[in-house]
Amino acid sequence: MAAETEHDAQARGPIATAALIGHDGAERAFLDTSAAQRMPHAWLISGPRGIGKMTLAYRMARFQLSEAGGGGLFGPPDTLFMDPDDAIFRRILAGGHGDLRVIERVVNERTKKLRGDIIVDQIRGLSRFYTMTSAEGGWRIAIIDGAEEMNPNAANALLKLLEEPPENSLLLLVCHAPGRLLPTIRSRCRHLVLRPLGEDDAMAVLEQQAPELEVDERLGLVRLTEGSPGRAMAMAEEGGLEAYGELLGMVRGLPDVDFAAVHALGDKLNRANNESAYRVWVDLVRLWLSRLARGSAGGGAGDGAMSEAVAGESELAQRLTGAVGLDHWVELWEKIGGLAMRAERVNLDRKQVVISAFMALQSTARQ
After folding, report:
1. For each of the chain's 367 residues, which pLDDT tens digit applies?
2. SS3 label, residue 227
3. Which of 120, 129, 196, 291 is the most buried (most CB within 10 A)?
4. What DSSP string runs through 48-101?
5. How far is it, in rounded angstroms, from Cα 108 to Cα 110?
């Protein structure tokens, strides 16, 4: 039985999404390359989480597997759109297309926890996939979701594959942090950089993907996640706006911190069934810090630098950024991100991460 992945758990997501909003330029670049018959063997699709990178990757894969680039009576197509009723769309959605593979972090069969990285055996399996004859006589395509999460051995195995690409093979690297990839991997890929969506486009995606949300809630989530509908939907499922309000309540008294409340929060997020809530909380802390830093860089939240996600956010930001300089908030943003990453890789206690984060917040606010 194949190992369970994050992808398996998604009831909705990029694999089932037919529309892509806000990235026409990236689609046009792929279509132009296909029409010119200059298809590179690897594309690097980068940008912040939740803005549509995997949706684009699936559109590219479906298009290439349909061999639509050759055009027809009216010339090459001008969109990567495929009707959800199309046989290729339905087979990919069901996981039944033999010429497409998706690589992502999997659950460790020994620990039953999600691995912190993509391992070398997964990339070796991809190499074997590419050496096989195409099931349908066309392209063989692989998508690596979160390519920066490959461990060093996996990255080196991928580099070898990129150095000797098989014929009619296409590799799509979806990457949230391209700077963490080997330069030699980046140099062997055609790079598409996706930007966060504007407020109107992000609202349109949320209306499409989460129509059950009230308009005010969608707007708050869009502003909080700064153009990332994917993150907004993940937060909606975990009560993101309410959790953000609770976070602001806990930091409102900085540099004073109610550590009894911090311990209670740590206990809650440390429960076995609260891993997704913990991930959202870490994301919320880093989003808040990035908003503080930008508010500070723009001269303070009080002169329009911040569109409030929840009431009272601007006033709090103005006070904190007025007291502590931009460099300190940026440094703290990096520190807490690094702490969360290390904790995930070595399975550190989540409660300790929460306590350490609040201690770091208190220390920064006292400077």
Report:
1. 334 344 433 446 899 999 999 999 999 999 999 999 899 999 999 999 999 999 999 999 999 999 765 555 556 788 999 999 999 999 999 998 999 999 999 999 888 888 889 999 999 999 999 988 888 888 999 999 999 999 999 999 999 999 999 889 999 999 999 999 999 999 999 999 999 999 999 999 999 989 999 999 999 999 999 889 999 998 898 888 999 999 999 999 999 999 999 999 999 999 988 888 898 899 999 999 988 877 656 544 334 457 889 988 988 988 888 888 888 888 999 899 888 888 877 777 899 999 999 999 999 999 8
2. coil
3. 291
4. STTSSHHHHHHHHHHHHHTTGGG-BTTBS-S-----TTSHHHHHHHTT--TTEE
5. 5
For 150, list phi and psi in degrees, rounded to 5: -65, 135
Tokens of 95: 């996981």
* Cis ω before 166 (30° cut-off from 0): no
78: Cβ–Cβ under 8 A, 6 or more apart, which residues?
Answer: 31
Name the fold adopted by 7-193. Answer: Rossmann fold (3.40.50)
Q: How far apart are CA 211 and CA 229, in angstroms?
A: 13
191 sits in which H/E element: strand 190-193
Helix pair angle (313-323, 240-251), 10° resolution: 40
SS3 196: coil
